[in-house]
Amino acid sequence: MSRFLIEKHKALVPYTPGEQPKIQNLIKLNTNESPYPPTAETVAAAEQEAKRLHLYPDPTCSGLCEAFAKRCGVSSDQVIAVNGSDEILNFAFMAFCDESRPAVFPDITYGFYPVFAELNQVPYEEIPLERDLSVDPRKYMGIGKNIFLANPNAPTGIALSVKDIAQIVASNPDNLVVIDEAYVDFGAESCISLIRKYDNLLVTQTFSKSRSMAGARLGFGIGCEDLIRDLNTVRYSTNPYNVNRMTMAAGIATLKNDAITVKNCESIIKTRESTIEELNRIGFETTPSSANFIFARHPEIDGKDLYLKLKERGILVRHFDKERISQYNRITVGTPEQMQCLTDAIKQIMEESK
Question: How far is CA 213 from CA 4, 160, 251, in A?
Fold first, then answer.
């Protein structure tokens, strides 16, 4: 820490990203990336725009926003394009939260929420998950605070219904409800349709998971026109060229090949379910995941110990030290072949631990 850091940031604890080790032949199942690469059309579109890197990208992202809005069944002025959905989440804290409008979110959820709250000096409350690690929507009804919910939740993968979300939004008419749908394409139902009825709902989505563009950094916010206008005010006051031209072109090309995204999601869901069945057969407990990852623990082996033993074998999963979930590991769903390697390695570890 330098002597120049201002006082309000000295206690800031930054978000810890998943490991990105440079190890050859690593089976990387720790950051919920897609195991399937982008299409040739997506790569070609990005390459074409690389020839124009001497020019600024379109700050309005008009073509990209129109394509995404069409995909979602909304108008383009109800959409904002951002540098990964983390950016829109930060914008929401910046634009809509302060001491008089604090934030609330689960105690076990996406780790960036408390970081953004601290960074923007927003008071916040964490509501404990239930014993089964689910979110009880009743605890958010009429709470009178700005609400941030990942749906499906991370790292549990458990999803709320659109009906539950509608009740939360309706019961907090004077507060913003942000629904972070980073994993919605893997088995949950999007609540984007609710923005037509509720002006206090902001939905966020990302291209990092289902659309194979984690390295390109692209996300969206979807809400009523006034919310999007407010968020664009923040965007233009920080970085109006937040989406580079290669990412913009890649995003449009990916949306044109949406059938590939759907097919990849179907493959990931199928692999997730078969892997859960195999893990259950060897004694693991798993949460009912609607995401592209599995949250699992075994009563006979310590969660961190399993994580380390898998790492020794070249298989990387995500472990969290938070006490309540320290016996779990979050396992990204890879290809069927990768998941077979995972379960084979786990069986070997279990056999060796006897």
Answer: 36, 26, 8
